[in-house]
Design a protein that fits this description.
The complex is a heterodimer of chains A (313) and B (528).
Chain A: H1 2-29, H2 34-39, H3 45-54, H4 61-73, H5 87-122, H6 127-141, H7 144-158, H8 174-179, H9 182-208, H10 211-218, H11 223-234, H12 236-260, H13 266-276, H14 279-307
Helix pairs in contact in A: 1-14, 5-6, 5-9, 5-12, 5-14, 6-9, 7-9, 7-12, 9-11, 9-12, 12-13, 12-14, 13-14
Chain B: H1 2-18, E1 31-35, H2 51-60, E2 62-63, E3 65-67, E4 73-75, E5 78-83, E6 89-94, H3 108-121, H4 123-131, E7 132-137, E8 142-147, H5 154-158, E9 167-168, H6 171-174, E10 191-193, E11 203-208, E12 232-236, H7 241-249, E13 255-256, H8 264-268, E14 273-276, E15 283-289, H9 299-308, H10 311-318, E16 325-326, H11 352-362, E17 369-374, H12 378-381, H13 383-393, E18 398-403, H14 405-411, E19 425-431, H15 459-470, H16 474-491, E20 494-500, E21 504-507, E22 510-511, E23 525-526
Parallel strand pairs in B: 1-12, 1-13, 17-18, 17-19
Antiparallel strand pairs in B: 2-9, 3-4, 5-6, 6-8, 7-8, 10-11, 11-12, 13-21, 14-21, 15-19, 15-20, 16-20, 22-23
Helix pairs in contact in B: 3-4, 9-11, 15-16
Classes of the chains: A mainly alpha (313), B alpha+beta (528).
Chain lengths: 313, 528
Amino acid sequence: MLAVIGKRLIATIPVMVMVAVVVFMMLRLTPGDPAAVIAGPNANSAQIEEIREQLDLNRPLWEQFAIWAGNLFRGDLGESFFFKAEVTDLIGQRIGPTLALATTTIILTVLLAVPMGIIAAYRRGTWVDRLVMGFSVLGFSVPVFVLGYLLIYIFAIQLGLVPVQGYAPLADGFWPFLQRLILPSLTLSVIYVAFIARITRASVMEILEEDYIRTARAKGQTERRILFFHALRNAAVPIVTAIGIGIGLLIGSVVVTESVFNIPGLGRLTVDAVLGRDYPTIQGVILVFSFAYVMINLLIDIAYTLFDPRIRY
Amino acid sequence: MMSLGHRLLGFVAAAALITPVIEHASADDSVLKVVMHSDLKIVDPIWTTAYISRNYGYMVYDTLFAMDEELNVQPQMVESYEISDDSLKYTFTLRDGLTWHDGAPVTSEDAIASISRWGEKDSMGQLMMTFVDDMTAVDERTFELNLKEPYGLVLLSLAKPSSNVPFIMPKRVAETPSSEQISDYTGSGPFVFEQDEWAPGDKAVFSKFEGYVPRDEPPSWASGGKVAKVDRIEWVWIPDHQTAINALLNGEIDLMEAPPHDLIPVIEADESIVLNDTNPLGNQYMFRFNHLHPPFDNQTVRQAALAALNQEDFLKGVVGNPDYYKTCEAMFICDTPFATGAGAEHLVESDLELSKKLLEEAGYDGTPVTLMHSTDLQVLTNLAPVAKQLLERGGFTVDMQSMDWQTLVSRRAKKEAPAEGGWNAFMTSWVAGDVLNPISTAGLIASCDTAFFGWPCDEELESLRDQFARETDADKQREIAFKVQERALEIGTHGYMGQWYQPMAHRNNVSGIVHGPAPFFWNIEKGG
């Protein structure tokens, strides 16, 4: 197992190098000049040129890449063009809200989706099943920003139960922390609940048809034990895969959710950096996201071994 | 399974019962939470012309002079000043008791260094510095500015209300090369920038500067007594307009600088929110020609375009509500000292027949006008589609190319032909404070390569601007300004496409907002 983990970690190096090269080149090929953005609306060509010089944007591309890659090799993601701050510091400031949002979303998703899928499978063909599947279709179909505004209108503006926007770190207290994450997590989790509930339903339904389930019933096992110990455990691999894919997709979805709920996380940092053509920040954030994606896949692979003893590395 | 469902329902019900009523984030009357028009990115208001950095500057720094609501220049940090009979020597004495946020006194050397740095960056400052022979400190609080020859805009330049505002910084900070951002944020203004609490892209925090000595006069625009009446101001960045308005309605923020016009009805429907038009001069739309490439390298074709365009259609297309816009023939903003309708006969109304006639005279061959269309800023988005339609009705062929604003500002700096990545026309908006006279109006610079994007080239216009700058008599200055407008419209430097107004929205327990060309935060009270 350790050897496999080691190999997988080494395999991330070429992946990250590829990501670094592609991101660097794509940004330089995208229209837009950070110097013009920085200079502001009243600046003239000479002022823009002066800023380009200062940011080293007039150097040949290969030279710019060499400087950035050299710094990257030393763990330095560079300095934001705008904020006069290290990109690592900016990411450090923003990673907390994103992790908090992602974690609560995943917990909420698993707590809702897996039981919903199991119930739908167990009550196959009944109104419960149709209700879960109906929700699933709806969850897939409603865009995050529509659902977000709807939940804000009902729970924040009309009922006044939670704030409209913002983020409070755990240091400010558990309730302030939680109350600002409820709506964004709920909004973000709907699509994943829909997705994972469907996968869970399909997997559990397939397992429930197996001979050993019939045998368990014949031996007088309770339905609860059959469902949770026999069926769910054997259906776990596709469910865990779906959760893993969901976490990966979550990285993209936080961008919209963080904007709607004004959570100062990595998603918002990415949007702001892209709009401002803040190359060092965009490059840094994408590298972090890519690394997170690779690590999530590794963790999912390790998780397989916990649920299915037949899987060994 | 039903028991599981019941348990879940019970949990939700219990959670709802124990949920405390949310504490409004903005309940503390000593803290003002504000959503500005943009995120604060650059904290050097000399290094960039971005309006958000200018607004930051007004919080943290003070100015030697400032403009009042009658557009008169008033001393601000300056206690008294003298102008020699030959108008060549200006002697300024700073007010007693002015200190920096670190407690050190503000000195003449600080003012001289600050003017020098500003003079390297700002267009009005650069022009003024060409007339300046030297600046010398007489003592701690007095300094002289000696001119090579009389220059009529010294005080007007030092009281410039919009980007770049000549903010006064400590000497050690102002000695930072103007090509580099400063990294020491010490000011002497009514608020202190809390650098440790700054979370770029999220929040900028300012606290009341207890050592600030305000003037005795009541506040008027950027002049008068700047009394900080709240202890702490937080600029919270909420990029999504709908979310910002929801937060305002819910009492989570106190003030929103620039609510979009299409959402104003939502605000008007809530009695707890007040709309407050704090900038009575408003903003002005500009249609900018690129003078380097066909078809707008031809003066008659530019005249044809100006004949085809009209202000009302642009204003209706973007702002919509006539309460927040007006047509105006004056290049230097209606109801200001240099306002005139001279030469602007065809600017307010379209004359499509004239446009077609002029195009025929010019031998226009149908060369498409590459019109850049900004798609992501609400106050600009609808401008280019309106321009395209009007120009086409006037006989032009238009190739409208859509892009985000940041791409547009990058592309507008390109002098290449449109087919090689350049452009023919774009539209933007100016804060009225930027276009109040022939020198500060960037679109009027007609110095060819060094002019504002579009690069007009006209000796006569440059000569008139130079005469305006040298003239010290106000009446004569006004006459020259009128001639500048006529000449600019004759050669078609740009078209100004109407004035529009951006109200602030704030909760009804916020009061004392000072009007001006930028949002000011002194004198604001919160309570009730």
